[in-house]
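Before relying on records like the one below, remember that each one covers exactly one chain. Contacts with other chains, cofactors or solvent are not represented anywhere in the record.
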Amino acid sequence: MDAHDTQSPRPRAEYAGAVYGSLLAASVAVGSAVDGTPLPATGLVTVLISTGAVFWLAHVYAHVVAQGTPPTWRWLRAAGRQEWPVAQAALPPAITAALLSGLGMSDTVATWGALAAAVVNQVVWAVAAAVGTRASTGMVVLSGLANLVLGLAVIALKTFVTPH
């Protein structure tokens, strides 16, 4: 074991990455129809998963830059595992869009479904983070509500700012 291995990212659930990734996925769903025309569901699924993967790589790269010295493969794998929730958070909205499309729903419905799934995912991860830190019931509720407000702000942007 070398010095890099002792500085590897902590092996824990990365709730912050999951919350962040969920908000990112919600933003992708909103931004996918800026001219009022939603992407086809297959395009939305592709953009959601691709964006999650790119941001995951960016977060791993940020670990490398912050370390200041060349990392080992073991260290890179640990950083990749720690940041994986950023990419994983795109899966529920992507699956929702694909399922709704598969059920014959319109691309608009698939986009709104993906957005709703991202916001629900964000709230669930925030609550899980609070519970995981053994926060008081009040803090758990506050965490859930704060993330619901953030998600609703993204929905408000979709509703009031972008043309439909």
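The chain has one domain: 12-161.
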